C-alpha cells in the first residue's frame, strides 16, 4: 500500500514537471516557426507603395510604424520664432513652417502646407516635382517608371494624382530579399562624389544609416537639360547632394559658392541665398555616435522582442522616449542624468540659435534700408556675401532637428560662426547707412509672426484662401484618381484629420 502511494506521488510529480516542459517546448517551437516565417520572404510586388501590403507579412514592424501617428501635434515655428519670417523673406518657409510630425503625417503635411501653394492644375503652383521626393513610397515607383529626368521635371502638382502613400516600407527595403536598399539614385552619386564611403562598399551597418540619409541630408535641385520621347528639350531639377568637397558646412558652402548656386534672392536684402534642407546625416557623421559607427537605426529604430521574436521597431522618433532599448544599451548613466544632459545641450543650442536669428534678420532689414537709400552694388557686395554665409551656417545647424544631440560641439561651433559673420555684416552696414545719413536706423518691429509677415509684405490671407480652394477641389480629384489606379491606401489615411497652423483642426 505504501509502495502504491509512493508510486502515485512520483507519477504526479513527474506529470507536474513534464507538462510545463512540454508547454515550453511547444512555445519555443511556435516561436521558432514564427521566426522562420519572418525570415521567409513573401511575394510582394516590386516597389509596392502601400505599406499595408508589406504589413500583411510583417505585422509587428507595420504596427510599430503606425505608432508614428501619435506624433500629431502641430507646432507653428513661425509663431514661436517670428525672426524666421524675416530671414526667409521671399522663400516658401516664410509662409508656413511647422515642426515636423511623425512619418505617418509626412505626406499630408507636405500637401497641406502653404509652401506648396494652391495649384489649380498640373502646371501651376510655386514648387517643382522634386518637393515630393522625400515624402512618399510612390517616388521610387515613379523614378523606376518614368526615369529620373522625367520625374524631376515640371511642377509639384503634375504628379499629385500619383503620390498617394507616405514614407514607408518600399523606401528602404528590397521586395525580393527584404534587405535594406537605396531607392534614391542621387544618394549613390553623392556618396561616390564624396568618396569616403562608396555606395557599392556599404555594409549592413552602413545601410542602417544610409536609408535614412536618402532624405535626412542637405540637397539642392540641379538644373539638368534633357530631351523627352517627343524630342522636346526639357529642364529637370534633380535632387543633388553637394558633397564633392566633403561633409562639413564649410565644404558645402564652398561647393555652392564655386558654382554660384542660389536657392532664392532675399525679398528685402536682395541677398543671393542658400536654404539648408535637413543635413542630419552630415552632422551626425561629425558627432560621437557617427564617429563610432552607431547607426541611425540603433537609436531611432531599436530592436525589441516579443516572445521569441526579435525585430526592429519602426516607430521612428526620439530615442529618449524608449531609453531602455536605446541609450541604455551603451550608456551606464541613469536615465534622468542623460535626459538632463540632453536638455542642457538643447537649451544652449536654442539660445545661440535665437541670437543668430535676431542678428541675421536685422542685417536683412538694414540691407534693405541701405538699398532704399541708394547704396551701390559695390558697397553691398561683401555685405551680401556675409549675410549669405551667416544665414547658411545658422540654417545648416538647425535644419537638422537633432543636431544638438548628434553633434553638440559642432552645432555650437557653426552657430557661433553664424553670429560672428552676421555681426560683421551689420558693422559694415552701419558704415553704409551712415554714409547715407541713416546711421541711427532701427529695424521695424518683427516680434510676432503677424508683424513679421507685414514687414516683408506677405499676403498671408490670400495664400490661405488659395490653399483652401486647392484642398477642396484639385486635391479631392487626386484622391479619386488614386483610388481608380489602385494606389490609395485607406490604412495610410486612417485617423488623419485636417490639422494645420492656418485653419481650424477640422475642415
Tell me the β content.
5-15%
* Known CATH architecture: Orthogonal Bundle
User: Would you identify the regions where 5 or more consecutive residues have pLDDT less than 50?
Assistant: 24-28
Tell me, what's the shape?
globular
User: In terms of quaternary structure, what is this?
Assistant: single chain
Helix and strand succession? HHHHHHHHHHEEHEEHHHEEHHHHHHHH
- Total DSSP helices: 22
Q: Note the gap between the termini.
A: 84 Å
Average per-residue pLDDT, rounded, comes to: 92
Number of domains: 1
Order of strands, widest sheet: 1-2
Major pleated sheet: 2 strands, antiparallel
Number of strands: 6
Radius of gyration: 27 Å
**Structural class category:** mainly alpha
Helix content: 40-55%
CATH-wise, what's the superfamily? Flavocytochrome C3, Chain A
CATH topology: Flavocytochrome C3, Chain A, domain 2
CATH class: Mainly Alpha
Walk me through this protein's architecture.
With 507 residues, the protein is mostly helical. The protein has a single domain, classed as Flavocytochrome C3, Chain A (Flavocytochrome C3, Chain A, domain 2), CATH 1.10.1130.10. It is 50% helix and 6% strand. The chain contains 22 helices and 6 strands. It has helices at residues 2-39, 51-55, 59-66, 77-80, 83-87, 106-112, 138-146, 148-151, 185-194, 204-213, 249-258, 280-286, 288-291, 296-300, 335-373, 377-399, 403-406, 408-435, 449-455, 460-472, 474-484, 490-493, and strands spanning 220-227, 233-240, 264-265, 272-273, 303-306, 309-312. The strands form 3 sheets. It has a two-stranded antiparallel ribbon. It has a two-stranded antiparallel ribbon with strand order 3-4. Helix 15 runs parallel beside helix 18. Mean pLDDT is 92; it is low at 24-28.
